[in-house]
């Protein structure tokens, strides 16, 4: 059903077309910012694991330095949101978007912190001989980053179904975590000299597992934006 | 806030309409309006210009009767009794259902006579009783201290904000149940607006208030329930959504409501 407002064309435009154009442009800018911030965090995760895999300590140091940029981006977006709330009195779906953004940037920032944590572990491990070639840990990282990218796409596209589906993929990350954990346990059981190195790798997998959990939190916010309902989706095993 | 909503959600209804259609001659201005206004609460009616908000408000005290060619179909009840019967006492109805207008409209007489006017019309004669009503009504709107020494001065010498408060006091003086307000703050400065809004929250303890406002932030600030009215293709106003205010402004049920209150193309 098409709803036509009363009055002249001028009234029509005044009432419907031209209202809040600047506000909605700013809201879209914030969405672009959040996608940018998401790719910064994704890069941080991928590079931290690369640094670990290749024993590239310079790269690890760079990941740690770059985390400042992610934190800075978060404050920048937060400030934009506060300014919009203060000046534009957002309501309904606009309000839900802004509230969701405030939560999402917090989650993305934490993912950046986990990457920083992995980079620090890479430095700790330094040039110690590798326990084993890293296979499942990079897979966990790839999958987590893929989930993050798609979760932010779902946010931009207001796609609650996609968000629910992505959230359920957290199980795969949990499975990889289990697998790596069991594998490292067997190393430690066989040879106690590997305990330090294996434990550090367990910390890495833990950081990746937590990152994927953060993505499921983002997915919950997407569902909230679309439906207005706060529901817990995809409860993590850990 | 949710607790507030719960308390307010079942306070009894004293004003309601059922399937109301209103026509100005052949033009249908309202279609199928069914709404229950809860007792002792504030209900805001919002919607684009010309959608029929004021027309709906005026249904509740039959102010539309004054416009030639108006026809109302459907049921309108106050305290369970239809107010559109042949034998409805319209003067008594408007005593129960008072109205405050967009522009303050004090009578060109003294402050005191403005307030005493209604009670006198309804038969209060004793000076002491009238004075009591005047003082109490002015106290209720918080104007007493400001005007107690100038009661005999012309009401039109007051500021616009004071005049509007006086008009509310004038409504209170005849002991209404319901107060209808048609854009009561649109001619006032921000301070006077906040003062009236504050007063409305106080009055909602004892009275049922229905307000039409163009100012959506005001509707969100002060009301318990919000009704969103919009025109359909033939320009008849329909009730799109009627929800607790906190819900309507955070998570409206109807996409048209969301589009309107977020200022998007409808």
Overview of the structural elements:
The complex is a heterodimer of chains A (238) and B (266). Chain A has 238 residues and is mainly alpha-helical. Chain A has one domain: Phosphate transport system protein phou homolog 2, domain 2 (Methane Monooxygenase Hydroxylase, Chain G, domain 1, Up-down Bundle), CATH 1.20.58.220. Chain A has helices at residues 9-17, 21-54, 57-88, 92-125, 136-156, 160-168, 170-190, 195-227. The relative contact order of chain A is 0.13. Mean pLDDT of chain A is 90; it is low at 1-16. Chain B has 266 residues and is of the alpha/beta class. Chain B has a single domain (2-106, 175-261), classed as P-loop containing nucleotide triphosphate hydrolases (Rossmann fold, 3-Layer(aba) Sandwich), CATH 3.40.50.300. In chain B, strands 6-7-8-3-9-10 form a 6-stranded mixed sheet, with helices on both faces. A 4-stranded antiparallel sheet of chain B has the order 2-1-4-5, covered by helices on one side. In chain B, strand 1 and strand 2 form a beta hairpin. In chain B, helix 4 (111-121) runs parallel beside helix 7, helix 5 (127-140) packs across helix 7 (160-172) and helix 7 (160-172) packs parallel to helix 8. The longest helix of chain B is centred in the middle third of the chain and has 14 residues, at 127-140. The chains are: A mainly alpha (238), B alpha/beta (266). The interface between A and B is medium-sized, with 24 and 26 residues.
């Amino acid at each position: 059903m098409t709803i036509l407002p009363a009055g002249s064309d001028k009234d029509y435009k005044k009432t419907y077309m031209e209202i809040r154009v600047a506000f909605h442009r700013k809201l879209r800018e914030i969405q672009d910012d959040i996608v940018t911030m998401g790719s910064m965090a994704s890069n941080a995760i991928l590079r931290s694991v690369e640094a670990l895999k290749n024993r590239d300590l310079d790269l690890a140091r760079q990941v740690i330095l770059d985390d400042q940029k992610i934190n800075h981006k978060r404050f920048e977006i937060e400030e934009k949101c506060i300014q919009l709330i203060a000046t534009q009195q957002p309501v309904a779906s606009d309000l839900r978007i802004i509230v969701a953004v405030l939560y999402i940037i917090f989650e993305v920032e934490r993912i950046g912190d986990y990457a920083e944590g992995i980079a620090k572990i890479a430095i700790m491990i330094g040039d110690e001989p590798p326990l084993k070639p890293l296979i499942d840990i990079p897979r966990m990282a790839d999958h987590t980053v893929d989930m993050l990218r798609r979760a932010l796409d779902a946010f931009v596209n207001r796609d609650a179904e996609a968000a629910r589906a992505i959230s359920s993929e957290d199980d795969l990350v949990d499975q990889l975590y289990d697998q790596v954990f069991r594998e490292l346990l067997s190393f430690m059981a066989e040879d106690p000299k590997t305990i330090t190195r294996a434990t550090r790798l367990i910390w890495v997998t833990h950081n990746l597992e937590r990152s994927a959990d953060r993505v499921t939190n983002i997915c919950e916010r997407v569902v909230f934006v679309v439906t207005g309902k706060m529901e817990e989706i995809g409860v993590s095993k850990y | 806030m949710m607790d507030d909503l719960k308390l307010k959600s079942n306070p009894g209804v004293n004003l309601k309409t059922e399937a109301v259609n209103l026509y100005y001659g052949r033009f249908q201005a309202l279609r199928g309006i069914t709404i229950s206004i809860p007792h002792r609460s504030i209900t805001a009616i919002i919607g684009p210009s010309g959608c029929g908000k004021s027309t709906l408000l005026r249904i509740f005290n039959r102010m539309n009767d004054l416009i030639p060619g108006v026809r109302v179909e459907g049921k309108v009840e106050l305290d369970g009794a239809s107010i559109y019967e042949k034998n409805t006492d319209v003067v008594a109805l408007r005593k129960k259902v008072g109205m405050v207008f967009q522009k303050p409209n004090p009578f060109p007489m003294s402050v005191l006579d403005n307030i005493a006017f209604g009670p006198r019309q309804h038969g209060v004669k004793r000076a002491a009783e009238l004075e009591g009503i005047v003082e109490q009504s002015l106290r209720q709107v918080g104007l007493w201290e400001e005007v107690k020494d100038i009661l005999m001065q012309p009401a039109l010498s007051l500021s616009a904000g004071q005049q509007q408060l006086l008009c509310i006091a004038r409504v209170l003086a005849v002991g209404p149940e319901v107060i209808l307000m048609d854009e009561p703050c649109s001619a006032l400065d921000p301070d006077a607006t906040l003062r009236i809004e504050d007063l409305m929250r106080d009055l909602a303890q004892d009275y049922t208030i229905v307000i039409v406002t163009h100012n959506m932030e005001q509707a969100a600030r002060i009301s318990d329930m919000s009704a969103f009215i919009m025109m359909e293709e033939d320009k008849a106003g329909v009730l799109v959504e009627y929800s607790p205010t906190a819900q309507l402004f955070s998570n409206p049920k109807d996409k048209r409501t969301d589009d309107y209150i977020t200022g998007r193309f409808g």
